[in-house]
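Record type: monomer structure entry
Structure origin: computed from sequence
Chain ID: A
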Amino acid sequence: MPTVFAPPTKFDNVDQRTGQRIGETLGLLCDTLSPQRRLVRANEPVYRAGDRFEHLYILNAGCFKIVNLSPDGREQVVGLRFRGDWLGFDGIARGRYASGAVAMDTGEVWAVRYDAVRAACADHPALLTALHEAMSREIAGDRDSLMSVCTLPADARVADFLHHWAESLAMRGLRTDQITLRMTRAEIGNYLGMSLETVSRALSRLARCELIHFTEKGRRDILIPRVEALADFVQGCLTPAASAVLQ
């Protein structure tokens, strides 16, 4: 019997407010700063680590990864960004970007000069609020990613990653019952601190538990019957009983 998938769930109030906030912020940027729009293709960098800092970037479309380079030149994925997110905050302190930003699919970024942002904030308190909120979300997101890597077992880590991806899409008004991962298994492992083989085994176990399903097109397209089930699975792995079993 074929698996029947429920239609995407209606966004709750949090998702609706987030989507509205993103639209309002993008509109505010257009009105106050007239950003330079730039189309980027998959694997194209927005900027590289070490580049001189002059601009902040706001994502209007697409998915992007934040990358650092290890001393031996290997790429380390340290963050994911979606529509409405800002890029480049790590360049403010030292005048150069500490990490790079790379498109994972075709997208659009808006560039605004940092000195112009500061000047505009003096006359537009709403823009200053949007800037501070973006910084706060980035700090909280980086904290949550670190907590996931430090506290969750492999299967829960991958489930949390998929839940975050789906939740990010939901907040932007996109479907969550089927998602296309814009990262290879190796990149996911790099981001989660796991090997490619561990990521593949974790995805297979989540599929056996029917938390996810793979489409016939390929293993980058993932069906998620219930996004909430992924969150429940992760939460279950944090209970004392589950922790004792996983040790």
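Annotation 1: DSSP finds eight helices and eleven strands in the chain.
Annotation 2: The chain has two domains: 13-141, 152-246.
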